[in-house]
Amino acid sequence: MIGVFDSGFGGLSVLAAIARHLPRADLLYFADTAHVPYGDKPEGFITGRVLAIGEHLAAQGCSPIVVACNTATTTAIQALRHHLPGIPIVGVEPGVKPAAQSTHTKHIAVLATEATARSRRLAQLIASHAADVRVDVVPCPGWATHVETLRPFTGEFRAEVAEKIAPLIADGVDRIVLGCTHYAFLTPIIEPVIAGCAELVDVADAVARQVVRLGGQIQGRAELHLQATAKPQRLQFALPMLGLTTLAERSVPAQLVSL
Ligand code: DGL
User: Fold this and answer.
1) How many CB atoms neighbour CB 249 within 10 A?
2) Which of 122, 139, 162, 194 is most exposed, with the fewest beta carbons within 10 Å of its own?
3) C-alpha 212 – ligand 1 centre gap (Å)
4) How many whole angstroms separate alpha carbon 19 and alpha carbon 246?
5) Cα separation of 40 and 238, whole Å?
6) Which atom of ligand 1 is found nearest the CA of 36?
7) 5: β partners
8) Which domains does the chain have, with CATH numbers?
C-alpha cells in the first residue's frame, strides 16, 4: 500500500496524480487535520508531526511513503529518511528546477507557505537550479487554510490572490511555481490572472512518476483508505468538492486516528 500524507487536503492533488499512474494500487491518504496548517508552525513542531505520521504509516505496511506537502518535505524529509531507513520516502519540493529550465524571461516566482519560504532547503534548491534566474519567493499565509474550508472562493479572496500575482506578471515573471500542494486547488482563480503571460509549474505528476519508478506497477484492489487526526468525514466530503470524483468512488469510510 502506498502511504501519502499532508497537513490536510492539499496532498490530495498529489494523490490524484499517483492514482492516475497506478490505478490498481491500494492507497492510504493521511491528513493531519488536527494540526493544519503547518505553514505557520515552527520547524520542531513540523518535524515532530512528520516523524509520528511516518511511523504510523510504516506500522500499517505503507511503502513507499509520499510526503505530499512542500512544507513537511523542505522541513523534515531528511529526518524522516533517517528515522525510517528501510522505507522509500518520496517528497514534494517546489518545482524550481523545471521553472528555471523553461523560463524565457529568466524571472520566476515561487508561491509557498511561510515555513517553506524561509526554509534552507528552498534556498538550496534555488542556489543549485536557478543561479542564473531571478527568483521571487512569495509567502502566501492563509491560502492553504482557505482551501481547507472547502467554501466557494469569495470575491475578497480572489482579489487577494490577484493582488499578490498581478505585480509579479507586470514585473516579467513567466513561470509561477505552486510551492504548496494546496495551491493546485487554486488554479481556477490563478489562471485568469496569468493567462497568456505565465505558466503554472506543479510537480504532482513528476512525483507520481517517481513513485512508479520506486515501486513498479504496484497492483492491489484499487482501494483508497482515508485517515485524519480530526473530522475524518470532512476528508471524504472533500474529494467530490475538490473535483476528485474518481478517488471518491474508490474510497472506503474514513477513520479518525489520534496521533
Ligand atoms: N500542503 C502543504 C504544502 O505543500 C502545507 C500547507 C500548510 O499546512 O500550511 O506546503
Assistant:
1) 11
2) 162
3) 23
4) 9
5) 23
6) 8
7) 30, 67
8) 2-92+205-256 (3.40.50.1860), 96-202 (3.40.50.1860)
Ligand 1 neighbourhood includes 73 CB (under 6 angstroms): no
Cβ of 37 below 6 Å from ligand 1: yes
Contacts of 85 (CB under 8 A, 6+ apart): none
Residue 70 is placed in which grid cell? Answer: 512542500
Residue 62 is among the residues annotated as catalytic for this protein = no
The Cα–Cα gap between 233 and 256 comes to 9
Q: Looking up cell 504509516, which residue turns up?
A: 57
Q: Hey, what amino acid is at 241?
A: M
What are the pLDDT tens digits along the chain (259 aa)?
Answer: 999 999 999 999 999 999 999 999 999 999 999 999 999 999 999 999 999 999 999 999 999 999 999 999 999 999 999 999 999 999 999 999 999 999 999 999 999 999 999 999 999 999 999 999 999 999 999 999 999 999 999 999 999 999 999 999 999 999 999 999 999 999 999 999 999 999 999 999 999 999 999 876 677 889 999 999 999 999 999 999 999 999 999 999 999 999 9
Cell numbers linked to 104: 524565457
